[in-house]
Amino acid sequence: MKKLLKLRGFYLFLGLAGGSFGSYLTLLLKQGGLDSGRIGMLMATGTLIAICIQPLWGVISDRYNQARLVLILSVAVPAVLAVFYQSEYFIVLLVVYTLSTIFSSTQAPIADSYAIVAANKAGSTYGSIRMMLSIGAAVGAYAGSQYVSHFSVSTIWVPFLLLSSVAVVFALTLPKQAEENRMMSQSFSKGIKTLLGNKIFLAFLGGSFLVNQTMTAFGTYFVLAFQSVGGSTSHAGIALFIASFTNFPSMLYASKVIKKLGRERTLLLGALIYVLRWGIQFAFPTPGVMIGVQVLHGLSFGLFYVAAVEYVSHITLPEMQATGQSVFNIVFSGFAGILGNLLNGILLREGGVWLMNLSCMLSSALGVLLIFYVSRSTRKRILIPVASERASL
Description:
Layout: H1 2-21, H2 25-31, H3 36-63, H4 67-81, H5 90-104, H6 107-122, H7 126-150, H8 157-172, H9 188-196, H10 199-212, H11 216-219, H12 222-228, H13 233-245, H14 247-261, H15 263-283, H16 287-292, H17 297-315, H18 321-379
Helix pairs in contact: 1-7, 1-8, 3-4, 3-5, 3-18, 4-5, 4-8, 6-7, 7-13, 7-14, 10-18, 14-15, 14-17, 15-17, 15-18
């Protein structure tokens, strides 16, 4: 029980820090002279380098039994480096973002490894722990908008550093390594080869990629897009608060939805709501609609993400759990982030919000088709080679 409280505290302050800073980073970069195209290039390059480095974190975390140390560094280093985003030199911004992403990219797999094990031991659910990140992000996003409205955006790193420091304190109270962590029990390359040899898993990854690349239009460019149609920074904070807060019920009740519909149908439902949210914004690109449509965020991202994590955990063997989650994270957050930051940044610059939302709607629709294939294959009981007998579809 104490570990659950510690993890919830960690996720809460991680969300507060990220929500108060991440959504306004593009505003800070734009103030420094970058347009959305160059911002996308900067973020895509940093993410690509981080993906190449990510397997090394698995070695440090598991072979050297240093999960807690890696988790602490993943929070502390980006927080300290944030002050340098005020630089007017593109190369400095690129180095800072790249280093920050290299460290922060390991947060999700490491923290989730603690959360999943702790939840199982306590008879709780992963979603009930992960929802604290959404609550923190909701409050942090709104607080960040108020901070930017009353103070200079160039000092947004101050609350980010303070809140991240509290998250580090919580991380220091966690065990050195998550119990029953079987990461890196086989070679990373062999695990990837095994996973990618399955066409259903590939379809799942493809659908996740197409769906989540649209999220950079929200996570990276929402404030810029909102301002481009006449919205204010303060109202953007309200929209971000609504989006993050709707993750709270989604994360809390995701397990019940999954039990009723199944993992694959829950994935399909989440993907369909992605199409709906982008379709509404494409048809009505106004500040009021862009605020109101955020009530769909939890039903789209929240349901999809929890179902996806549980889907990967279900279909992979115990000794391949970390490899499966790492591959999913690389595609879902890494490659999708690269394409999304590049594509949506260019579309926003060249065609405005209308063109970016159209692209996101079409990409989500293609993702729905691939997830539908995964769901249909499950109903036909096609067995997945990477699964054990208990996890056969």
